[in-house]
Amino acid sequence: MAGLELLSDQGYRLDGRKATELRKVQARMGVFAQADGSAYLEQGNTKALAVVYGPHEMRGSRSRALHDRAVINCQYSMATFSTAERKRRPHGDRKSTEMSLHLKQTFEAAVMTQLFPRSQIDIYVKILQSDGGNYSVCVNAATLAVIDAGIPMRDYVCACTVGFVDETPLADLCYAEESGGVSSLALALLPRGGQIALVQMDARLHQDHLETLIEAAMTACKCVSKVLDEVVRQHLQETSVLSR
Amino acid sequence: MKSINGKVLPGDLTHYVVPDAEVVLNYLEVLELVELQGVVFTQTACQALHNKGRRFYNRLRNLLKDPRHDCVLFANEFQEFSYCPREKGESQEKWQTRCVYAAAVWYYNHLAGMMNLVMITEDLDAVSRFSSLNSGVYVISLQEYLQSFWPALQAAQDLYGSVRQALQEKEADGSQREFPEHLPAQVLEAGIKSGRFVQGILNVSKHRAQSEAFVTSDSLSSKSPDLSAGVLVAGSKSRNRAVHGDLVALELLPKVEWRGKVTALSEGPADERSGNDDEIQPMPTGHVVGILQRNWRDYVVTFPPRDAAQAQSRAAQRVLAVPWDRRIPKVRISTQQADALQDHRLVVRIDSWPSTSLYPNGHSVRVLGRAGELETEVQTVLVENCIHVPPFSEAQLREMPVNSPEKPWAADPAEAAARRDLRQTHLVFSIDPRGCEDVDDTLSVQRLAGGKLLELGVHIADVTHFVREGSLTDLEARSRATTYYLADRRYDMLPAVLSADLCSLLGGVDRYAMSVVWELDAQSLAVTKVWFGRTLIRSSYQLHYELAQALLNGEEVQVPELARLDPEERDTKLSELIQALEMLTHIARHLRAQRDRGGALELEGVEVRAQLDQDKNITALVPRQPLEVHETVAECMIYANHWVARKIQEAFPYQALLRRHPQPRQELFSQLVDTARARGFSMDTRTNKALADSLDRAVDPEDPLVNRLLRMMATQAMSQAVYFSTGAQPEDQFYHYGLALDRYTHFTSPIRRYADMVVHRLLTAALQQEHGGQRAAEPGKPPAGNKDMEELAEHINSRNRAAQRAQNLSTGLFQCLFFKERDPETDPRCVADAIIYSIRDNGVLVFIPEYGVKGPVYMRNKEGLVVTAGPDGTCEWQSGSVRRYSDHITTTSGCGSATFRLFDHITVRISVLSTNCHADTLTLQVISNQPHLGATPQRPGSPRRSQLVQEVVRLAGEAQEKAARRPELSKEEREFRQSRTPNLYSLLEEIRELALMDPDAAARAGTVTA
């Protein structure tokens, strides 16, 4: 069989989206009672669960505590059933360690850690179903969870992947696109100020195209932020109604 | 109506047709016919085709993009209401059919029932299931559809029938395996990466099509030097179903199994010899393990006569048809018309080649006619070179401006205002061959600033003003890329209203032009200023070469434009004109000298002069004497081309279309050097200048043909000049070897070359970029990017090669038809003088100057007899032996021995070897080792050839008893209709570029278009 055609002449992608179209984003906050904050987020077929504990006192070795701000501890994992091939994924494999580190960096940029010196915030994210854009879905879910936990942040952190095919940037890649040889870039943005929390890319791309690609990623992130904002407002309304 | 990609289906059709996935998969060819309008392809069908292979899918994509076809794509699976999920247990085919039907229904409702929809499917079950569900949506089979909606379109039905039969054959094929299976694609890819396999294009040997093929590729030579000459694939088993032109993967055999290439002349196509005794020097040998990319095109085949195909009772028969191109294997076709089509030539396509079959399976596409008839043969030449030249469609002609006696065309005042008006200020004139109709270049020259400056202008027809980029005419011109010249006819790139009228810079009428104007210092002739731009001109004189030269020589001649004026006025005008011509000559001499100093120009200089010696023979149009005015005009055109090349390359450093002529590879000159040494000349081939000088010295005072042959070999060794995009080559590769210019392009013949039109557009864009501020209303549209430009350059190059091949083939065809009429034993014209230019194991290669024919002469025939010469030189066949040396070949027999040396003149008899299935070929037989008595060393050969073409045409006309036989006038008409050659400039130029073709072919090119 011939290779996949990622962008047809008519401008459709494999799953029928246009180049700049995102997958459908649905989310719910406060899914667990025992955690300080939690959220569940679906972006197309990628599903993630995020749980936040804290801020609380340092657990384990106290020596890691920082005297002027809180330590953010992230843990990323994938469920055994999350991919097409069922596979046991022990903690601490290279890929998830790297992903945890990325998440940590992202949230250190967004959470106002200086308000909680010598304490710790734990963010646990689990991918329940993986269909591309795992990093960005995790970031988006974790943002909601952090907000649910009531931890102050500078802004939402919204993330999105973009790819580059036939001189056109494609927003929010799905698994088939990611594995189809597209050079993809993941970007986490604080949308209101337009600050970039993290950019990550390990494919080859001509320098001339980088500008357009980042531009497209930022637009996509802003779209995500609108959805997240909606979810948060909806959630607040519901909870306040209940408590009244 | 749904618009996708800017294409909209016309609203005035009776129905739209939605083909099912299966129909698209198997019968795409039928749907490709332009006559079928209003086709809606569904995404479902598209996906199915994509799964079958990228090649098929690309064909559909091109179809959808092509504005000449009325078809659109409907992305039905992305439409919420037309999407059907696949049900459990439903087969894929059923699901696809259901999807397509749902799409058709949705589409019908979407159009609010205003247009009927016809869904065509081969699934009879679906026909009965769906046909009565919706009133406006009809479901029928493809056959029924063609019969009821397109009863007049016989071609579609025939095509359908033959595809269908090929499909049925495929289902019912046998089991015995004849070839090893090809390896899967992943294995091939990995193997190529690891170096286990090599990939390349398979080239089948023309002379030993059954046994020898070579694989060559650019990457081969760079990786391992010992593979640079290519890899031999010996025998059809190791070729493993690869066809000429395919991209294959090879596995090299161990060194002990390597074999050599056969250098003996093969004795006739029927005789296949294993050639084991003649083998020399084993070369890398391999066998095909897989095919990466099929490169099948349409092939012309001939049905064998009836007796070969034994009696069959079944209605459908399988016939092994013989391709016209010997390099292509026989094709198995099943047809019901085998009887009716005996000895006819057909176009076929190959469908598949299963490993169980010795021959590929194919189906017929259309019938060309009976083999041997002129019309059939000419069509064969076109199809074999993939030249597709339908008459211009009505829609294309509608785009053309009108110029008729009732509605004469006039320059638009607004347009005229935007252009620089040269009508009053400049004396513009053209110099072309006598009777030329399409004048694409004119010249002007005058003194400025009280004589301190000279102004030289070259004004080229502004074709791109009339042909907008992307218009139907433009697309057609782009796909043709050039005007095709065959021996007896011409296929224009642009409709006649443009090429012969509105774009032609005729005398005394207003015309749009694209001009290059230089200001030169009157003393040093250095360029002080150059101006490019669009102009409005009126050519004052339409001169021809002889007239211009006569004026220059100060002879008393009549200028037709001045005939009616009173004597006094005539004299002033005449002196004005003569002065301009003299100035022009002066400038051209200087330009030429300047380039000579720049180095290297000697090659073409000589080339041209030598060429002119032949050119004078080409047609009656071209003078007997090479005139200086030819060179003058050519020089101005080269100058214009060069300056335009500089301009567009500066404006668009990465996407300008230029033309380069690469340095020839030194090893290719070895034959030339060896041959020249045999005659005592030494050749220095290191640079173009050195080569030109040594060619100059290599003159045998007794035999001018020696020099001509050496030049022919030199040109053969050179590569062809090609178009390229500047972004695709490093700057040092821009060099034009033949012209010795650092940058060169084609600008001066937009009427007959598409490349020139592209260059015109680039120049326009460059100018707009420059004057961006002034003409803000029309912002310079950036030209196509480097990738597109390179693609376009490739396309034009390949079309030019095809045009060249077609021209040579058609000339060969006419030669054969000419000699076919004559009895070789009695007709004196079949005996000619020939000169030996190469020695082979069992014979020699000769050139016949009189007819411009090259061919082999055998010294040993199939029975093993050899040629011996009697005392008077007459040759006979005797038993004996042949011995080959580096510069001569000796035959020994009972009666003595005979020696044939390089450059010996011998007498040969020309006869035609007729084959039913292939092109006829000329065979040459030596009858004496002395020069032919009647032969003058360099007899005018070419007029002979143009007569030859006319004679053949006349005979063909009579044979068919065509009522519309060409009138007496037709000779002039044929000769003067158009000026491609006539435009001597183009001739010269072609030669210079040269080396482009061998002089012999160039001469033919001349004849042909005269």
Query: Structural class, from helix and strand content of chain B?
Result: alpha+beta
Which regions of chain B are unreliable across 5 or more consecutive residues at pLDDT < 50? Answer: 267-279, 308-315, 599-625, 775-780, 935-945, 960-983, 994-1010
Unreliable residue stretches of chain A = none
Fourth-tier CATH superfamily name of chain A = GHMP Kinase, N-terminal domain
Number of domain modules of chain A: 1
Strand order in space, largest sheet of chain A: 1-2-3-5-4
Specify the number of helices of chain A. 4
Mean pLDDT across every amino acid position of chain B:
77
Q: Cα-atom Rg of chain A, whole angstroms?
A: 18 Å
Could you give the count of β-strands of chain B?
Answer: 36
Multimeric state: heterodimer
CATH architecture of chain A: 2-Layer Sandwich
Largest sheet of chain A: 5 strands, mixed
Secondary-structure blueprint:
The complex is a heterodimer of chains A (244) and B (1010).
Chain A: E1 25-29, E2 37-43, E3 46-57, E4 71-78, H1 94-110, E5 119-129, H2 134-148, E6 158-165, E7 168-171, H3 175-178, E8 183-190, E9 195-200, H4 207-243
Parallel strand pairs in A: 4-5
Antiparallel strand pairs in A: 1-2, 2-3, 3-5, 6-7, 6-8, 8-9
Helix pairs in contact in A: 1-2
Chain B: E1 3-4, E2 7-8, E3 15-19, H1 21-31, E4 39-42, H2 43-52, H3 54-65, E5 71-74, H4 92-110, E6 116-120, H5 124-130, E7 137-140, H6 142-149, H7 154-171, H8 185-194, E8 197-204, E9 212-216, H9 218-223, E10 231-234, H10 236-239, E11 247-252, E12 286-293, E13 299-302, E14 317-323, E15 331-335, E16 344-352, E17 361-370, H11 374-384, H12 394-398, H13 413-418, E18 420-421, E19 428-432, E20 441-448, E21 453-461, H14 463-466, H15 472-480, E22 484-485, E23 490-491, H16 496-502, E24 510-521, E25 527-544, H17 545-552, H18 567-597, H19 602-618, H20 628-651, E26 657-660, H21 670-678, H22 688-697, H23 704-717, E27 722-725, H24 754-770, H25 786-820, E28 831-839, E29 843-848, E30 853-858, E31 865-869, E32 875-884, E33 888-893, E34 896-901, E35 905-913, E36 921-928, H26 942-959, H27 970-976, H28 984-994, H29 999-1009
Parallel strand pairs in B: 3-6, 4-5, 6-7, 15-17, 18-25, 19-25
Antiparallel strand pairs in B: 1-2, 8-9, 8-11, 9-10, 11-12, 13-14, 13-16, 14-15, 16-17, 19-20, 20-21, 21-24, 22-23, 24-25, 26-27, 28-29, 28-35, 29-30, 31-32, 32-33, 33-34, 35-36
Helix pairs in contact in B: 1-2, 1-7, 2-3, 11-25, 18-20, 19-22, 19-26, 19-28, 19-29, 20-24, 20-28, 21-23, 25-26, 25-29, 26-29
